[in-house]
Amino acid sequence: MNTVTRRRFLHSSLWAGTGLALGTASAAAIEPIRRSGPPHLRLSIAAYSFRQSLVDYQHKAKAGKTKPAMTLDDFIDLAAGLDLDAVELTAYYFPQTTPDYLAHLKGRCTRLGLDISGTAVGNNFCVADADKLREQIDAVKRWIEHSARLGAKTMRIFAGTVAKNDSEDKARSRCIAAIQEACDHAAKYGVYLALENHGGITSTAEQVLALVKAVKHDWFGVNLDTGNFRTDDPYGDLEKIAPYAVTVQIKTEIQRRGRKKEEADLKRLIDILRAVRYRGYVALEYEAAEDAHTAVPRHIEALKKWVR
User: Fold this and answer.
1) pTM of whole model > 0.85?
2) CA atoms lying within 13 Å on the CB side of residue 129
3) What's the CATH number where 225 sits?
């Protein structure tokens, strides 16, 4: 029987655009992406960078705001003004997810020459309660459908944290099954699910790889977040997961184990991506203390030197 390797499939699907998946899960575990051609990096900006201005509609009480200082329309306009290639739209900041509203955002991006590099959803696939886990999976599936309507290429997801009186092995097992099911759904809509290294059971490169290598699916990879490892050697750990990246979030700071935050070496981070011939979006996710409206333009200009 003719079989298409996972990595050839990924490469061909990126050229194919937004077509439906050719199938569901593959027979072999995920392998590092075999990328054709030289590195090709495109700049995006994560809406989370402007979390102080955008209303968190999913956590209104915590946000303590009813009227945003910035709307997603404003954010898209700002990205165009910065001469970026794309935007990443985070689920928290959507006031609604009706087909008309999603089409409106997609159209605004199209008119401004912007792609939607991806979306992001908050989820926890480690929860032990079966009903609550089902709610998490169903929420991710809904956002896969929203992402497809938007024309997003990827959607980043989380693994989660181990609950009290649970074990990491059991949590990991549930997480793997949940990701597998979610990927089956994502395959129908042509959206890649990207697991972020985001604490919990993805705190180290080894934990990330334990999950990534266990999920057997063509529509799965890593969202490489450059600021989330709090290990002795964050740069070295990023090198370990970079071969699996389908999307990237770059931060302006890193934090080594037991030490204060320090300014990230942006060139070194980009070099890590180039070393694996990464082809895809690099979204700035700004989280430092300076106001994003003044800091983001400066960091974008710095990144342009290394990315373009």
Assistant:
1) yes
2) 7
3) 3.20.20.150
